[in-house]
Inverse folding.
């Protein structure tokens, strides 16, 4: 794995926050300018929310982060302290917020763990396992959502959403299946296949990378073998809790503007948010900026009406911008902590 320190620190650069913020706010500005019926009152509607659901949304946001912090600590067999676990999760969230979802932040996550004194083999194992657990949540729950709610889960006004969802879900399912089989069943066979595939003439330039990746998967596989049921139960439950909390935040935000939601409505909103997230994973923009706002309005306008634009902005203010701010604030302290450790 390429862990070039300078390259990764460029990715973690606090100045990276400006591009996704500009794209996100630029989209909102575009929607305002392109709406012939827009009036300042439409944005002022954001202040007409019921405050209790918004307070609960922030509380659930905190629970989500606690679930991730708990998971990484358990995942690393408590080799990470609570303080280190907080740094890892906050910087990992920041890296995800400033890089395109389609690219991912695997190398950055491994680098962060390495600097927290987790060796390379274990760092790769933990990051790979985390990706598999998160993706398995999508792979298992998305078909259930479509099965129980039906195709009405997709917005009628955007015919391409269904195609994007199918493409994104298929890629996630394929990657997760291959990595799960490699990690838990035949890591040596996986390495052999990578080397054989990159023996083809036009793929030879990637042969060394394939060899490295094969070794990484073999290290990861050896490190997670023999783990007890309690270990798997804790990290699986923490994964489910984190993702459910991530989605429930939006339920509270919608409820803040629409007090007439029934339990079936809440389940549909939860399902729509899951589908939206999978669609966002193919976004080429940092942190899905612009893409997230666009599709959010398509998915949830029926529940929000005149509150749609304001709620879109509030949703990103609660679930996205904090990671840009926290990451930019935490990063300098973390760099001093891991690169300039006091001697003696």
């Amino acid at each position: 794995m390429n862990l070039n320190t300078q390259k990764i620190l460029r990715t973690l650069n606090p100045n990276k926050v400006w591009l996704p913020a500009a794209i996100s706010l630029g989209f909102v500005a575009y929607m305002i300018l392109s709406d012939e019926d827009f009036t300042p009152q439409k944005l002022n509607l954001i202040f007409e929310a019921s405050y209790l659901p918004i307070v609960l949304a922030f509380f659930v946001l905190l629970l989500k982060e606690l679930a991730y912090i708990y998971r990484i600590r358990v995942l690393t067999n408590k080799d990470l302290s609570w303080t280190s676990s907080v740094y890892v999760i906050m910087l990992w969230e920041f890296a995800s917020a400033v890089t395109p979802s389609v690219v991912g932040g695997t190398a950055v996550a491994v680098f962060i763990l390495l600097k927290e004194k987790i060796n390379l083999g274990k760092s790769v194992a933990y990051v790979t396992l985390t990706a598999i657990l998160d993706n398995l949540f999508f792979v298992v729950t998305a078909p259930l959502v479509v099965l129980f709610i039906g195709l009405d889960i997709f917005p009628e006004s955007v015919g391409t959403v269904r195609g994007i969802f199918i493409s994104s879900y298929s890629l996630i399912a394929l990657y997760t299946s291959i990595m799960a089989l490699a990690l838990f069943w035949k890591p040596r066979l996986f390495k052999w296949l990578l080397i054989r595939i990159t023996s083809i003439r036009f793929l030879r330039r990637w042969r060394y990378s394939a060899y490295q990746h094969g070794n990484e998967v073999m290290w990861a596989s050896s490190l997670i073998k023999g783990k007890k049921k309690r270990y798997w139960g804790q990290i699986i439950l923490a994964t489910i809790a984190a993702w459910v909390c991530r989605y429930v935040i939006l339920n509270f935000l919608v409820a803040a503007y629409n007090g007439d939601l029934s339990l079936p409505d809440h389940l549909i909103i939860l399902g729509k948010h899951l589908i939206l997230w999978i669609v966002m994973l193919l976004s080429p923009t940092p942190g899905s900026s612009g893409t997230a706002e666009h599709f959010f309005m398509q998915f949830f306008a029926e529940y929000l009406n005149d509150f749609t634009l304001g709620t879109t902005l509030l949703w990103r203010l609660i679930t996205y911008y904090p990671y840009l701010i926290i990451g930019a604030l935490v990063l300098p302290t973390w760099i001093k902590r891991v690169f300039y450790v006091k001697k003696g």
In short: The longest helix spans residues 120-149.
